[in-house]
């Protein structure tokens, strides 16, 4: 069921989140504020390890915040997680497809979880398989799918319940250029129909193409926010890559020692 969202679809204020381990406490989100108006696309950018997935985790009720308020689709994530869950779709950075099932079975699982009736579920599954170019592979075990096919199925699964707010964590990583454009078109179609989208990406052209607003997360805070055009103008450049490089720091030596805090791709 799609809920009508009035006012901002996502409102984050003073969000703080740290992880505790034997090594101590790591503050990942240190007072994040973010507002995403309903029916728009916001791209959350930031270096590897900046906390994008953590923020998406809190906004999608998978992780509890340490402090701050987060409202999604008009509901507080801490006090009304069920209502939030009923309004959202989440595509994680790692696919959630079940390799032992085929594509149709994976989608049916989502249709059942969303309480779609048999006929409605079947209609929706057929539509999504077509939209994502998976109709011919519908009955093949997902274990035999390529990485890109799994990603597309994952996205289709996110959309089964027609969510009003969709979180896409690096949705096009590993997709070929044509498939990436299919996803972009899909995002545009969803937004035209009133869906709100928060996406993370390391492909800054993607943010430039899709996002009404870009927010850059660095060292626990949103360090810049605006339309792609505004951010580029502010940095006197035609490329969001330049904006990203200017606003974010290269990994420090300690981060490098602790793991792969390097960028995933050469942005230059
Ligand atoms: N469950 C966890 N326990 C401990 N530390 C964690 C956990 N999840 C994430 N972290 C740490 O929190 C920081 C932020 O991680 P997160 O996955 O949110 O970053 P990200 O911006 O999504 O990065 P990427 O671009 O690589 O996907 C990293 O330093 C990471 O090591
Ligand atoms: Mg991430």
TrEMBL record:
UniProt topology in membrane: Peripheral membrane protein
Start-end of Polar residues biased regions: 259-268
Keywords of this entry: Antibiotic resistance, ATP-binding, Nucleotide-binding, Transport
GO molecular function: ATP binding
Gene3D superfamilies, sorted: P-loop containing nucleotide triphosphate hydrolases
InterPro entries named in the record: AAA+_ATPase (IPR003593), ABC_transporter-like_ATP-bd (IPR003439), ABC_transporter-like_CS (IPR017871), ABC_transporter_ATP-binding (IPR050763), P-loop_NTPase (IPR027417)
Region (Disordered): 248-268
Protein location: Cell membrane
Domain ABC transporter, residue spans: 10-244
Name of the protein in its database record: ABC transporter ATP-binding protein
Organism phylogeny: Bacteria, Bacillati, Actinomycetota, Actinomycetes, Mycobacteriales
């Amino acid at each position: 069921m799609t809920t009508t969202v009035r006012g901002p679809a996502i409102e984050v204020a003073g969000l703080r989140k740290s992880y505790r381990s034997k090594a101590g406490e790591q503050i990942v989100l240190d007072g994040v504020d973010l507002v995403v108006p309903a029916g728009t696309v916001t791209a959350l950018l930031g270096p590897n390890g900046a906390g994008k997935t953590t923020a998406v985790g809190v906004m999608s009720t998978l992780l509890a915040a340490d402090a701050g308020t987060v409202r999604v689709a008009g509901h507080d994530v801490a006090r009304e997680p069920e209502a939030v869950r009923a309004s959202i779709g989440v595509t994680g950075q790692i696919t959630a497809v079940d390799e032992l099932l085929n594509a149709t079975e994976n989608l049916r699982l989502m249709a059942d979880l969303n309480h779609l009736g048999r006929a409605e579920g079947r209609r929706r599954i057929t539509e999504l398989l077509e939209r994502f170019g998976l109709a011919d592979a519908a009955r093949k075990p997902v274990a035999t799918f390529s990485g890109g096919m799994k990603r597309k199925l994952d996205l289709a699964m996110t959309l089964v319940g027609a969510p009003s707010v969709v979180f896409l964590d690096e949705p096009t990583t590993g997709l070929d250029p044509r498939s990436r454009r299919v996803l972009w078109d899909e995002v545009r179609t969803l937004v035209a129909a009133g869906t709100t989208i928060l996406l993370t990406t390391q492909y800054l052209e993607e943010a430039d193409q899709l996002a009404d607003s870009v927010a850059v997360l660095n060292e626990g805070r949103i360090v810049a926010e605006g339309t792609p055009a505004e951010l580029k103008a502010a940095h006197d450049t035609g490329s969001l890559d330049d904006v990203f490089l200017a606003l974010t720091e290269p990994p420090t030596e300690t981060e490098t020692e602790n793991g792969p805090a390097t960028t995933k791709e050469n942005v230059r």
